[in-house]
Amino acid sequence: MANIITSTDDYQFWRDEKLAKVQTNIENCLVEVNNPTQLSTAEKSKISDLCRINNFALFHTPAQQNYESSIISFNQQFGLTEFDQHLYVQNQGLAHITQSDQSDQSEFIPYTDRAIGWHTDGYYNAPEARIRAFSLFCVSPAQSGGESQWIDQQMVYLLLREDSPDVAKALTHAQAMSIPEHVVDGQIRRKTSVGPIFFTDEITSQLYMRYTQRKKNISFYASDEIRQAVVILDQFLAGQTPYHFSHTMQANQGLLCNNILHKRSAFTDRQDTPRLMLRGRYFNRVQS
Hints:
The protein has helices spanning 8-21, 41-53, 67-76, 153-163, 165-170, 224-238, and strands spanning 30-32, 56-60, 94-97, 116-119, 133-140, 144-145, 148-151, 177-179, 182-184, 187-190, 193-195, 198-200, 207-209, 219-220, 245-247, 253-257, 261-264, 267-268, 276-282. Strands 1-2-16-5-19-3 form a six-stranded mixed sheet. With 288 residues, it is α+β, with helices and mostly antiparallel strands. The protein has six helices and 19 strands.
């Protein structure tokens, strides 16, 4: 992909192709998988195509004896091997996203039953540790709630730019959003992260996004244009377009994506089988 942010011609070509191919029916984005450890050519091709066009694919598998090894194998078939070894990762880059009774872990919202606002994964990571893809697989759903919502970040940029080019441009400012360093017991676990909200990834030449609606400890560049652009972005996300998706994943359903923008509603757990999602974060994109 050429640089659609800086080149009007490249943008217009990309926009027309994107709008011609994009899927808006969630049923067309769900792939039935017979064996996640050994995908058929048709299954792999369908998932790859969806991730290339929409930046995400949903999939459904039979029950597995070992969910971790099955999902690791599934992800590896799409080239996802460069995983993010962040806090609380367990086997081969997979984290167990479930309510935690550990005081340090429960400080992080994904490990609670609370709602999570719109965000991209690893928005606080340095460019050399950029999250370009992630997978999310439901081992057991909540008793109620836990709905996922998402939208292709490239469609967000496209629709904002079509409506107001100045807003889209403001969100590409090199210092648009800053996240302070994370310090625990005097040790720096993560350095300060400063960068744009929309940007062209140098390695893949793809349009990406780093964003969170979590305004605590988040700051935006001190300009009226950028602050207003963030307000407009949040208003857009709060609305509904054909490109907004909502789905409460059931057992044996998963999402594979190129780090799309997403959120989660609050949920209530079952006593005996709490909600459990397996999440993998990767430094590379979904490959064919």
